[in-house]
Amino acid sequence: MAVLAAHNLRKFYGGAEVVAGVSFGIQAGECFGLLGPNGAGKTTTLRLCLGLTDPDGGSVELMKRPVPGEARPARARVGVVPQMDNLDPDFTVSENLLVYGRYFGLSERAIRARIPQLLDFAGLTARAASQIQTLSGGMKRRLTLARALINDPDLIFMDEPTTGLDPQARHLIWERLKQLLAGGKTIVLTTHFMEEAERLCARLAIMDRGRFITEGSPRELILRHIEPHVIEAHGDGVMDWTDHEARKLASRLEKSGDTVFCYAADPTPLLASLANRGELRYLHRPANLEDVFLKLTGRELRD
Amino acid sequence: MWRKLAIPSILGNLADPLIYVLGLGYGLGSMLPEVGGVPYIAFLAAGMVCSSTMNSATFESMYSAFSRMHVQRTWDAIMNAPIDLDDVVLAELAWAASKSVLSGVAILAVVWMLGLSGSVLSLWVIALLPLIGLTFGALALAVTAMARSYDFFMYYFTLLITPMNLLCGVFFPVEQLPAAFQAIAAFLPLTHAVAIARPLLLGQIPSDAVLHLLVLLAYAAAGFYAATVLFRRRLLK
């Protein structure tokens, strides 16, 4: 069953087409990842799906309801973890959950009954009465996640849920998201952490300049777009080695700063060549999603 | 929210106008003959009730609403629930109006305690306060919808709130002004609020009450409409 379907979505800002004809469907119970560099149109796509802005073309169906026309009842079944924490600083941790539940029309009694399990899920039971300002970044994120679950949603949108978190906090969020998926929730996730997408998403799309440029499981994308072996080499003389040897041995080369990325189906000749170059340092690893991402969206900086 | 803010809100909104009433009322009033047939402080009381209600609604709709919308992003969070932007704007208006009623009632209570108004008719002012709050709250929300930062609000205070406090019969009768300024004052909403509140506090039935009420209602409706249009343009683009 599709819980979200977008058909040929378009959105213009000024003269620029920020979302340029995007179509996708999300099935109940899956975790769909939307990857892309900054400014690719990920957040705008989410806003269109939630009915927070009107599309200039195309259509959205969220929880079987047309959006933006019936966005309100559709949003009643949806939870959102926004990119920026927007917890209410006037309230304590548990008051934030209580007030937010009221926005869904839930009774105070029903919310109060639900708060302990949400606090437990977020690991914030001991901080129930704390002011928001006293929470760490990781705690705020977990509370924002718990807040998004106040209405027991079927579908949860997460806009870069772990941006700005330390590794411990990030792993905890991942673990919680897996728990939600195991419980049958559907998750739509935007991120630019490839590891996050690889770990969590069964299916993902890479978005750039308003378009989906590829779509599939992490494994499929790696097989489809990239050679299976990567050798990263750096050190004095690496450019000399690149020009005289690596260029002939690798099927594809990329330079980034003083590191050379060599992509190859068979790494043996490259490794043999490197063995004769003691001054070079190198790392041989299997290709991953980040290699796909960088190949498809380029290495230049985005703002 | 009310539980947390009630006491500081009443105290904060009471101190300033009270100083005006007492300082100007007794200080300046002692040098003045009667104004409009009553002691100056009794004349000033109605002006201060209206003006502090206006100031409180304005402040709440600008600084506090802007904080929640732009700085804390509370509106974004609310709009992810099944609540639309127009609902949020209406709720901000209701909040600003109710806070301003609280400060208006606080001044009114002081006026009664000082014996500046003994008329039963003055109770009607309590019914007028929500309309004053809605009018100035709605106008200020439209300004907030255009604001890029807190600095922007100074324009509104300098260009509209301060002139209204001086031109609309708060401190002296509008009739004292040159004809041109009287004409301007006739268009400003605070003039109409004072024109209803002052007779009521002095125990008289206001003349042209319906007209004054309609002007306030028109400003409230226009302000709210402009606010919803401007906020939609700003936040739902």
Give a verbal description of the structure.
- The complex is a heterodimer of chains A (303) and B (237).
- Chain A is an alpha/beta fold and 303 residues long.
- Chain A folds into 2 domains: 2-223, 3-Layer(aba) Sandwich (Rossmann fold), CATH 3.40.50; 227-286, Alpha-Beta Plaits.
- Chain A is 37% helix and 29% strand.
- Chain A has 11 helices and 14 strands.
- Chain A has helices at residues 42-50, 71-75, 93-103, 108-121, 137-148, 167-182, 194-200, 218-225, 238-249, 268-275, 289-297, and strands at residues 2-13, 16-27, 31-35, 57-62, 65-67, 78-81, 155-159, 186-191, 203-208, 211-216, 229-234, 252-256, 259-264, 281-286.
- In chain A, the strands form 3 sheets. Chain A has a 6-stranded mixed sheet, with helices on both faces. Chain A has a 4-stranded antiparallel sheet with strand order 2-1-4-5. A 4-stranded antiparallel sheet of chain A has the order 12-13-11-14, covered by helices on one side.
- In chain A, a hairpin with a 2-residue loop joins strand 9 (203-208) and strand 10.
- In chain A, helix 3 (93-103) packs across helix 4 and helix 8 crosses helix 11 (289-297).
- The longest helix of chain A is centred in the middle third of the chain and has 16 residues, at 167-182.
- Chain A is globular, with a radius of gyration of 22 Å.
- Chain B is an all-alpha fold and 237 residues long.
- Chain B has one domain (2-235).
- Helix content of chain B is 77%, strand content 0%.
- Chain B contains 9 helices and no strands.
- Chain B has helices at residues 2-28, 40-71, 74-79, 85-113, 124-146, 152-167, 179-187, 189-201, 209-235.
- The model of chain B has no long low-confidence stretch (mean pLDDT 92).
- Classes of the chains: A alpha/beta (303), B mainly alpha (237).
- The interface between A and B is medium-sized, with 25 and 16 residues.
Properties at a glance:
heterodimer; A: 303 residues; alpha/beta; Rossmann fold; Alpha-Beta Plaits; 2 domains; six-stranded mixed sheet; four-stranded antiparallel sheet; 14 strands; 37% helix; globular; B: 237 residues; mainly alpha
